[in-house]
Every structure is written in C-alpha cells, then in structure tokens.
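Archive entry. Fields below.
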Amino acid sequence: MTLLAERTRPPVGHRRAGSRSGRRAPAPLRVVAFLLLAAGSLVALAPFAWMVATSFKQPQDVFTSTPHLLPTTEEGDWAGTLANYTEVFELGGFGGAFLNSVLVVAVLIPLKVFCSALAAYAFARIPFPGRDRLFAALLATIMLPSVALLVPKVYVTQWLGMADSLTGLIVPSLVSAFDIFLLRQFFLTHPKEVEEAAMMDGASRLRIFWSIALPMARPALAVVTITAFIFHWNDLLWPLVILSDQDNYTLPLALQALASGRVAQPHLVMAGAVVAVMPVILIFLIFQRRILDGIQFTGLK
Amino acid sequence: MELIRQAGARKGARPDTFVGWLFVTPAILHTIVFMAVPAAGALFLSFTEWDMTSAPRWTGLRNYQEILFDRDLYPDFWISVRVTLLYAVLAVPAALFTGFVQAYLIDTVRRGQGFFRLAFYLPVVTAEAAVAAIWRWLYDPQFGLINEALGLIGIEGPDWLGIPEMVVPALVLIAAWQSGTAMLIFLAGMKGIPRNLYEAAEIDGANRRAQLFSLTLPLLRPTTFYLTVTGVIFALQMFGVVYVLFGRDIGGPESAGLTYVLQLYVSGFRDGEMGVASAMSFLLFIATLLITALQFRLSRRDAAS
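PREDICTED_STRUCTURE:
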C-alpha cells in the first residue's frame, strides 16, 4: 500500500518508448495507432479550439453557416476582437467573479492542505489511545455521497452565519478525509530514523512535523494541492446553493448566469468560458506529469 | 521500572496523547460539524416538513410515501430516476470503451505518449459550467460545429438539445469526450502487466488479437470493475452539466435531461421543500449502496464462472 510513494518515481513509460509495456508492436501497427491517436486528439481538442476561436469573433461573424476557425468576416478578412473579453469583465461581472475565485482558492487550499497534513501525520506517526478507531470513523465519511448531505450542510452553514459569503465557500471545505487518507499513506512510508534522531535531540513533535515530515512529503502535498485547486476552482454546486448575491459569485456561477441568458450570445459565453478554464488549463499544463502520474496511482478524479 | 519500560517500548512509539489530539482536533471537529451533524440531520429532516424558515414539522414516512407513490404530487421523481439510470447505463460503458481504446493505442505507439495522455485528459479538468457552455454552442441546431461536421459527410444532424430522444445521447457523447480518467487508469493497468506474460503468449503462437482478448482484457478485469463502480456512482450524481446546458429550461425538452440531483435541487432550493429534498437525498444514498453492492455481487459471480 505505497500508493503515494509510487508518485515520486519517474513516470512509467513516459518518453521512454513504451519501456515497460509488454507488447512491442510491429512498425506498421505503430503508425496506424499513431494516426488514430492524432485524429482522436484533434477531436478531443476541437471543442477547446472552437471555444477560443468564438471568443475572439464579432457577433456578426459568429452566426455564419460556413464556420471559420479564425475570426474572419464572410469575405475572409481578419476581424478578431478583444471586445468580448472587456464586455464580460465589465458588464458580465467576470472581473469580480475572477477575484472571488482567486480569493477562495488562495485562502482555502493552503489551509485545507495544512489541516489535512496535520491530522494525517498524527494518524501515521503519533500513537495515542483510540487513534485507529478515530481514523476508521473518519474514513467511513468518504463513503457518504456529498450530494446526500447537501441540504443539512447548507443549513449548518447558514446557522453558523456563513451563508451568502466567501467564508461559506471556504470553511465547510477545509478538511478532506480523502486527502488525510492519502497523506497518511505517504507519511507511513517515510523512514522513521530521521524523526527518531530528532526526537532524541529533544525536538518537539510540531517541530519535527514542520521541519522534517512536511518537506519530505512535498510530492504528495503537491498532488493534493493541485487536485484540490482544480476541484474548488471548478466547483458549481456548492457556490450555487450557498450564494445568492451576484457580487459573491465565483467564475462557474458567473458563467452559468451568462450562459442562461435569454438571448444566445456565444461570443460572450465563450469568452467567459475561456476566462473560467484558462487558469486550470495552465496549472494543468505546468504540472501535468505530476498530476497524471498521481491520478494514475490513486485513481482519484 | 522506568528502565524496563524504556527498554521495552520502541523509541518514538511512546503514546503522546495530548499532541496527538492537538494534531487531529481541527480535522475531527470539522468532520463532526460538516459531516456527522449533516448526516444525522439529513435522516431526521427526511421525516419532516421543512421550508428552512420555521421549525421542521414531524410527518413520519409521509415524504417517502409521496415521493415514491404519489405521481400527481411529484411527477418528476420517476422521470428523473429513469433519465439518470438511462444515462448511467449508456455513459459509463461509452466512457470506459473510449478510454480503453485510447489507452490501448497509447500503449502501442512509441512517440507522443505524453501528449496524447494530456490531450485526452484535458476535458476532465475543465469546469462543468464551461463544458456545458461549450457543448451547448457545439450542439447549436443552426450554427453548431457538430451538425456542420455531420453535414460534411452528408448526414443531417438533429436538434440535439431540442428533441427529447436526442438529449441523453447528447449527454453520453459529452461523457465519452471526458474519457480521460478511464484512459489513465487503464493505461496504468496495462503498464503493470509483466512483459514476460506477453513473451510467453507469443511463444505459444498467440497473435496480437489473441493476446488482447486472452491476456490484456482478463488481467484488466479488476481495473474495469473499479472504473465501472466509481463511474456509476459519479453518473448517479450528474448535475452541473445538465444544469448549465439547459439554463432556464430546467431539464430540457419534456424533462428528457432531468437528472436525479437536478430535480432534488429544484425540490429543495427552488420549491423550498427541504424535508422532501432530504428524503430524496437519503433515497439516493440507499440506491447508490444497493447498486454498488449489486455490482460487487455480479463481479464475484463473474469471477467464479
């Protein structure tokens, strides 16, 4: 059970010609597979290309029966514009929503990772009576589908006076049992000797956690941080049931409001969609190997 | 005495109750407030009539009775059950099949493994609201790219989101586009199969197709099972995409896209029937458990035969 330890290894078969994979396919087959994959990835990426292309088009160039990927007029003259972006930022409330989204993840993610790591470390390393039963109880909460608790969770959040505020987006999500489970697995694989030597030198538990365990757990913390960022940046359901004031909207809500307008405005909606997905896509591109290998070994979404 | 204890106990393993509790307190406190209390609350509230403003009124099993048997009062309930089951039954195999083919091909090529993995996973990290916004535009009956592409090969595309029969297929197509998770996990499974098994098969004269059907697929059965179970649980909770896809027209034409959680959301947060929504939540929880248990049972029988 060293799921997380696996994550620190170099990714299997990445950039190394199917090194571990069992079947050495004959060359013609490899070419066919490559062509199929190339076609498949074009299909997978086409919606993104179309989103970006539409976001730079003027309204009159959007509704044409012959679609152009580049923002051009019917005659084929260049007609790209940034007007859709200024419009969603100024009139569509995307400026405020962007700030709200940034604020929420900037406060929530570090706290969430810290709280989860703190508990995970104790469950892995600090013996105390009842510890393992407590951990089992915590694990049981993973089984509960989040939707099933939605109604009372909203009520608890209201009762604590956090409804319709960014606090109400942050506090209820501060701890994740799943992250605690993952990080505990990782701490369990640490060699004990370093920590024991530090104990002999009289270092406190907190000191050992902060100066030894956390730095060693960096790869695991990175995966937990990035997956939490992607989840909370994209989350629609919780903000939807907690927020009512438009000023508190996060990007997914602002996009949802824009998309359900009475008049179809694909050029604006696509500009909004670009704003909502770009930060995640950038983070994903930067850390893609770490994320993909991490997910491969844990099977989390 | 002290000496004996020290010699007997492993260093670093002495109980440290105060610090231990200190470390886990934030997580435990949070779990009690935001998980345990809501879990108990959900069950209690499901036996009450409650609009979130006045005190809940105890009504016993009435919510369950009315949801399950009173079609005039909650006509959407069984519609949403049918839509959600249909979606799960079609979308999960579609995503698994697409993901498997992608993984198999990636495992075959030498170059570009990293890029293909990235391209197929990108739709998974995209926000639901954005996924719905993009596909709504792609499915546009007049200017949508999908029907434009179908037109190129001489097929007249339907009004995907406007015809009730086409709504679930449209959702299944989106699910197949988001096959990245299945692709990644299948790929990990394939990389984990020892090479010498294939070498032995080759010596026995098994061609590539025989290797696929008698080696790769059977060995990946646990992977397939894991992906099926998690995929179904996920599909039963489908909400964000349909909510944004149909905008004001909740559930789409003739409620053909009204998923379970979407109608739960409408009952609780639009109609203000929190007791009813809690009962629906609890029914979803039970249904998820039952369906998961059924899958475990089927897979065991499968393995035995």
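CURATOR_NOTE: The radius of gyration of chain A is 24 Å.
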